[in-house]
Amino acid sequence: HFERNPVKLGGPGVIIQCDETMLNHKIKAHRGRMPTQQVWAFVIVDTSFTPARGYAEIVPDRSATTLLSIINTSRISNLHR
């Protein structure tokens, strides 16, 4: 659904917040093994709405190319208004 209808956040004069987060299960009492693969998510939040609107996506890597492509497809540029 979101590939055909991407979430649009931000706009002229609106600041969006971006964050990268590592998703991991918690090891309790120092038992068990650390996960061998790290799963990273990239999150974009528009706080101009109440409640805030957001979009999160699992990313294969945290390179600038990957993150900028997500930002460019998820934000409203000045040209769209």
TrEMBL record:
Name assigned to this protein: Transposable element
Top-level taxon of origin: Eukaryota
Naturally occurring in which organism (per UniProt): Pseudoloma neurophilia
